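HUMAN: Please help interpret these C-alpha cells:
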Amino acid sequence: MIPSTPPTAPLDALVTERMDGIGPMLDALPTTDLVRLVNDGDAAVADAVRQQASAIAAVVDAVATRMAGGGRLIYAGAGTSGRLGILDASEIPPTFGAPPGQVVGLIAGGPQAITESVEAAEDDPELGRADIDTLHAGALDTVVGIASSGRTPYVLGAVRRATELGCLTVGLSCNAGAPLSAAVDLPLEVVVGEETVRGSTRLRAGTATKMVLNMLSTLVMVRLGKTYGSLMVDVQATNDKLRHRAVRIVTTASGADERTARRVLEAAGWHAKTAIAMIAMDCDRETARAALAAAAGRLGAVLEGH
C-alpha cells in the first residue's frame, strides 16, 4: 500500500521528491546503461496509470456529460504540468474538430511560461484564482488541476476558485494523499516513485501526466461522437498529410474508391464525417450536415438508417 502524504508534510516527504541516498552515480555509468535505467523507470509508469483506470474512466464520463451540454475542459498547472496541459488542449481542435476554447490550458506565469521558466508564479494561489476568473468558468465546466507534487499553490488556488464557481474539479498528481486530492471532486493519484534524477518531475511524473491527459481528452472526444470506429472523422484536413488521411478515412468508412472520396470531400469542405454521410445517404452537403446535427454529430447514428 502506498503511504499517504499528510497535507502539512514537508516537500521532502513527497514520493516525487524522495532522495534515499545519492542513488546511482549517473555520470559514471555507460550511456547505454543510462538509457536502460531511464527506460526501466518509464516502463513502470504505464502500470501506475493502469491502477487509476476506474478513476480515470469516471472522470471521462463526468467531463463528457458536461461538455455535451456546452461545457469546457480547463487544465491548470505550473511548469511542466502546465505545459503538458497546454499541449493537450492545443491538439484537440485539429485532431477532433473541436471549436477553439472548448479545451483550454492555463499555466502559472501566463504565455511567457510556455517557453521560459517563470517558476515563482506557481507559489501564488491568487494567480490561479484570477486565471479561472478570467475564463468566467461555470457549472458546466471542468477544471483539472495538474501538479506532480499535489501541493502547488497556483493549482490549489485555481481548483478552489473553480469549486466556488460550481465547476467540476479534478486533481491529477503523482503523490498519494495529496492536498490537491482533498481539494477536488475527483482525484487522480498516479504514483510513479522517485525520479531517475531526483526531484525532476519532468521525467516519470511528466510521462504519467501526458498519458493521463491523452486518455482523458481523447476518450472524452470519443464519448462526444468525434470518432467512427477508430477513425478521426472530425479531423481538420488543413495540409497535404491530413487531406491524404481524410481520403483514407472516407474510403475506409464508406467503401468508396479514392477518386470518389476525394471528389465528395471537396464538396464537403474536406470534412470527412460529412463526406461519409453524403456517400451513405447519396445527398448533398447541407442534407448530410442536417442529419449529423440531428444526431448530435454521431456518424454511427446517421449511418444506421442507410
